[in-house]
Design goal:
249 residues; alpha/beta; Rossmann fold; five-stranded antiparallel β-sheet; 11 strands; binds adenosine-5'-triphosphate; ATP-binding; Amino acid/amide ABC transporter ATP-binding protein 1, HAAT family; ATP binding; ATP hydrolysis activity
Amino acid sequence: MSEPLLATRGLTKRFGALTVSEDISIDLRAGEIHAIIGPNGAGKSTLIAQICGALPPDAGDIHILGRDATRLDTRARARLGLARTFQISALAMEHTVLQNALLGCLGARGTPWRFLSDVLRNGHLRSRAEATLERVGLLDLAAVRTAELSHGQRRLLEVAVALTLEPKIFVMDEPMAGLGAEGSRHMTEILSNLRKEAPILLVEHDMDAVFALADRISVLVYGRVVASGTVEEIRADPTVREAYLGEDA
Ligand SMILES: Nc1ncnc2c1ncn2[C@@H]1O[C@H](COP(=O)(O)OP(=O)(O)OP(=O)(O)O)[C@@H](O)[C@H]1O
């Protein structure tokens, strides 16, 4: 089996007396979508924050592409190839769709904002940004102000911005949130194709999307991984059905 591109070992985080991550060891391998599911407050966002470098763990470590990244900050992890999409939009609303995609390209290079006008004239970066917009179906809206996009279009733009980083690993926090049935289907199709170029660690509440997309699922309850397996294994697991899917075992 190939080496994981992302791995946590014994990750533990406490807020006072509350343990929100308890000895979490999960990994992400090339070509896969690994979904993290669990009830509200189970610790999914806290886990992502630790993986991406926004929150230091109290114990355990995080390896990115085989390198110990536990003490690296968010930007250093991004430079290693970790791209994150957020539960709440991190887009620049006053900028156009294309400018947001270009800012993503800039972020990848650590270039300061004041050079945006130069970047707009940089043919290579511009075509890279346009190519990512085309992949999510937003190229026709390149000149539109981001504030004017629908919620679903903004979520697609977030994925496009993550793509401009040419990441080796995607970490996605509820990309389906607020999308209608049609929007979820479209996003599901896009994510399904993305896994080929970079595997996805996917936190998601939309179980239809999770069951359609995931190669593996880990179930988090009260900060602990209580089950991990394929869609079929998780669906059949009595502990999961009782603790999370709300069914009698
Ligand atoms: N900065 C903080 N200080 C104290 N407690 C926190 C902090 N951040 C999160 N928590 C608590 O940690 C627990 C896990 O929260 P977290 O947001 O990671 O859960 P989640 O699984 O992502 O939930 P949801 O599905 O609702 O987004 C919750 O009980 C939350 O109240």
